[in-house]
Design brief:
5 helices, membrane, transmembrane, DNA mismatch repair protein
């Protein structure tokens, strides 16, 4: 066996070892990432199971809407009355959809969402936002929630490890496919 073929074979063995070791160590994580990615891809087509559809309000004319403070009070009262009187009301965001006549309230500490008609304040939807939970699992930010970190450091570590691992998987997987072809080709040519 030529020196060049020996080096190619050694490189192929090293890549196979890296690929196998990464696969064994990160199997569960790759499984979770792939399932959550699939669910997130289907969230708007899940029949409101994963993500509640955006409802339609009475009017798209913002000038006819109630003041945001009043809408916020309605959303808070709905949560307290329908979910729990002690539920945390810290807002993550208020998502205003003028084209639909609706205002969505999304909260930091839980996964309930409230949709109100911007003009009347009528509750159009009070439902769990499962897509937010799935997204937090997918990107690793659930670790910061569980361990109560404020810096998102665990999400950063998780997403970095998963991204680098996927990159290594791609490179080693390509080489495991291409390497033997290259070795056969070099065997034929002197």
């Amino acid at each position: 066996m030529s020196e060049k073929r020996k080096q190619q074979a050694k490189l192929l063995r090293n890549f196979r070892s890296i690929h196998r070791t990464l696969g064994a160590l990160l199997f569960v994580f790759f499984f979770v990432v792939s399932i959550t990615a699939l669910l997130l891809g289907w969230k708007k087509n899940s029949g409101n199971l994963i993500l509640p559809s955006t409802k339609m309000g009475a009017t798209t004319t913002i000038n006819n809407w109630l003041p945001m403070e009043q809408l916020q009070d309605i959303a808070f009262n709905v949560l307290r009355d329908s979910v729990s009187s002690s539920i945390n009301l810290d807002l993550d965001r208020i998502d205003s959809r003028p084209s639909k006549g609706v205002v969505k309230f999304v909260f930091k500490e839980h996964y309930w969402g409230v949709q109100l008609d911007g003009a009347t304040g009528k509750v159009l939807s009070l439902s769990p936002r499962r897509a937010d939970v799935i997204e937090n699992i997918h990107d690793g930010s659930i670790l910061d929630v569980v361990f109560k970190t404020n810096s998102n450091i665990l999400k950063l570590i998780y997403s970095s490890v998963m991204s680098i691992s996927l990159l290594l998987f791609t490179v080693t997987g390509f080489w495991l496919w291409y390497g033997p072809k290259r070795m056969r080709k070099s065997k034929r040519t002197p």
